[in-house]
Amino acid sequence: GAWQESVLYPLRGKVALVTGGSRGIGAAIARRFAQRGADVAITYRTHPDEAERVAADVRAFGRRCLYVRVDVANREEVASLVERTVSELGRLDVAVANAAVNLSQPVLEATWESVHRTVDVTMFGVFHTLQLAAQAMVRQGRGGKLIAIGSVHAEIPFPTSAAYNMSKSGINNLCRTMARELAPHRINVNVIEPGWIDTEGEHDRYTDEEIKAGLSRVPLGRMGEPDEVAGLALYLASSEADYVTGSILRIDGGITLQN
Ligand code: NDP
Question: Which of 76, 103, 160, 236 has the fewest Cβ atoms within 10 Å of its own Cβ atom?
Fold first, then answer.
């Protein structure tokens, strides 16, 4: 019946956009949204083959998928992504600003170039994505859901990551401000702060030994799975979360409980 349908397919008839959908957390979110009924637009930057694989999975769920090469630091490219999503998939109901980069360096040695690039992608990329998506949603007049993938590093001053950490703090305040301004339009804006998630990006960054050592900081004793983050994103994207706005939700295995 209709009730069963809405439980199994909470995003039926919706269109979602996910930046950085080719790998890691973004790819898991795109797949989960499609599995639960949404058509999905994803972006990739350096991994077209991975994006194509995600698109194939989305289509295997019977949903439509648009994948576009986008640098989220480039406002024109994000604008064209939003336009193409609305024109090719018909509407926009959910936007997930997930793409980020951490060109990590200790502050004393940091080059301005890498600091600027990190903030351009991780903070301004989120601004472009959420602002342009919000404008499209307001034009539609049907409300919507905006989600930023932040990080526990908004609070934990993780060394060598100053530009990233300050970008993640910045998007928290962006989202809380947008939540207030957009409430009259029935657009909910929330942040997910993952802790340490088992993605390709982390394995590029750290050796297996380093990961094992790092896990001593995690009360639950393991990394989180991208699929677990996708579950929280699905909740925030669905009508179950219609009363949730301006929230910063952690999914971190308890990492922020330790000093
Ligand atoms: P990955 O490095 O595994 O994947 C990053 C994704 O973002 C890829 O799809 C990549 O595209 C895309 N991307 C990178 N730069 C840009 C850019 N300039 N423009 C558009 N797309 C871009 O990352 P994760 O899945 O690990 O991280 C996803 C989000 O989760 C980020 O916001 C990250 O800060 C956050 N996070 C992750 C944690 C973790 O432990 N993994 C912990 C806390 C937060 P492509 O590969 O095609 O270049």
Answer: 76
List pLDDT tens digits, range 234-245: 999 999 999 999
Residue 92 CB–ligand 1 contact under 6 Å: no
3-state DSSP assignment of residue 18: strand
> What pLDDT, in 10s, does the model give residues 188-215?
999 999 999 999 989 999 999 999 999 9
Whole-structure pTM value:
0.98
pLDDT tens, residue by residue, 81-117? 999 999 999 999 999 999 999 999 999 999 999 999 9
The alpha carbon of 210 and the centre of ligand 1 are apart by a number of angstroms equal to 20
Residue 149 alpha carbon, nearest atom of ligand 1: 32
The string of pLDDT tens digits covering residues 162-174 is 999 999 999 999 9
What SS3 class is residue 198? coil
How many whole angstroms separate alpha carbon 124 and alpha carbon 110? 19
pLDDT surpasses 70 at 259: no
Which residue, 172, 146, 53, is CA-closest to 94? 146
Pocket test for ligand 1, best of 149, 204, 211, 256 (most atoms within 8 A of CB): 149
Q: Rounded to an integer, what distance in angstroms lies between the CA atom of residue 131 and that of residue 110? A: 29
Query: For ligand 1, what atom is nearest to the CA of residue 47?
Result: 47
Ligand 1 centroid distance, CA of 184 (Å): 31
Q: Which tokens go with 228?
A: 């677990």
Instruction: Decide: 73 in ligand 1 pocket, CB within 6 A.
Output: yes
